Amino acid sequence: MLEKVLKVGFPTNDEINVEEHFGHCKKFVVYSIKEGEITQKDILESPEHAPGVFPKFIKANNINVVITGGMGQRAIDLIKENGCQVILGAAGNIKEVLNNYLSGGLYSKGSPCTHNEAEHECEH
To answer: Domain extents for the chain?
Structure first.
């Protein structure tokens, strides 16, 4: 029987810290987890920032969980339609956030982003 591999993705600009704004990231760090252990780490270039592009990117890369600082409601809905979990309100070092998630200590907090490029009203 094949063991399921969980893929956890983090938007980032520096490959170290979680990016506050999902749509502004330059890269995605994706960890593959099997039986609670990290088996692989991939650095992916983010796609262009356009409606519907990120959800397709996440689905194409078989990412099961996206952990980010903030994300708009439309992006959340589109990503969840593909069966992916979204966790909001994360900040700091990606590896520390991942370990917190794997130990069961990370929960979505904050609200979806409700701003455009000119304003900022997020709770993250």
So the answer is: 6-103
